[in-house]
Design goal:
By secondary structure, the chain is α+β, with helices and mostly antiparallel strands. It has three helices and six strands, in the order ββαββααββ. The protein has one domain. Helices cover 37% and strands 24% of the residues. Strand 1 and strand 2 form a beta hairpin.
Length: 167
Amino acid sequence: MIEEQGCVVGVEPGAVWVETLRQGTCSACALNAGCGQGILQRLGSGSGCRRVRALSELQLRVGDRVVFGVREELLLKSALLFYLFPLFGLFFVALLAQFCGLAEPWLVVAGLAGFLAAWLLVRRHSRRHSNDPALQPVVLRALVMGGREARLSQLPFEHGSSSPCKP
């Protein structure tokens, strides 16, 4: 499970909104001077807060510090779906158009149409499954002062850094 710490900024029945501080690993990397991620981090585009909705069975309040997580396989499947499927659509339709003997400008148009069609399918799939509890981040534990952690005794969702919170 990939874990992240954050601060609760909103509470809903069965879920909380958590604000996290976007962090980069570029300060520890030896290649940060020549890496695109390191350059973006220094320019300021890698900094800032983001909000995430996470499922929770804990009784939390606004201002509580929590650790939430996302399954690794879910992250991998999502990356493949969102990045590779549109590219596959682009290449497949362009190759199909080439097989049909279309001229080069039409190959480009066909490839872009395949990319757009695959992107629309991914978007439809994403919207259809946006409320699936198996695909949501889950609050794993609440952090309390003194270094102790309040752990959830039994995590109900088997599927499923520094904090921006001020002490």
